[in-house]
Amino acid sequence: QCPDVMGLVHTHSTFATAFAALGRPIPVYLTAIADEFGGPIPVGAYAKIGGEEIGEEIVRSIGSSRAILMRNHGVFTVGPDVMSAVKAAVMCEDVARTVYYALQMGQPDVIPAEEVARAHQRYMEKYGQR
Q1: At 80, is the secondary structure helix, strand, or coil?
Q2: How do beta strands 43-44 and 74-79 pair?
Q3: By C-alpha distance, which of 13, 22, 27 is closest to 76?
Q4: Which residue, 13, 63, 66, 69, is CA-closest to 43?
Q5: Buried b / exposed e across 30-68, counting CB within 10 Å, b at 16+?
Q6: Are the CB atoms for 31 and 127 separated by under 8 Å?
Q7: pTM of the model
Q8: Which of 7, 30, 39, 95 has the greatest number of C-beta atoms within 10 Å?
Q9: Neighbours of 109 (CB within 10 A)
Q10: Per-residue pLDDT, 78
Q11: Phi, psi at residue 47, to the nearest 5°?
């Protein structure tokens, strides 16, 4: 179903998993989120461990993002190879930490969707991230 996905990483990284525990996506408050993920980092519904439910929910909910927070569980990231998925996992935790701290100080502004799309396309083309 996802022929462009050849790498998958699963973590329980502290800050991103805190968002998953709350069932809260990570909005595009930072250019790093726009660049790497091309939109908000979504949250998938709770899925039982041990069967195919988690994989099915990831495919259903991830959209075009390279990361998804699974409610009450943790983080899954994907990429065209393992290193790309690892990079997305590191970036997911990094932006989750920054967003967490920003939310402690106030309410950040969301970057407009058209700017997110422009920044993401530029990042992918100029830096060859995919």
Answers
A1: coil
A2: unpaired
A3: 13
A4: 69
A5: beebbbbbbbbbbbbeebeeeeeebeebbeebbeebbbb
A6: no
A7: 0.91
A8: 95
A9: 9
A10: 94
A11: -135, 140
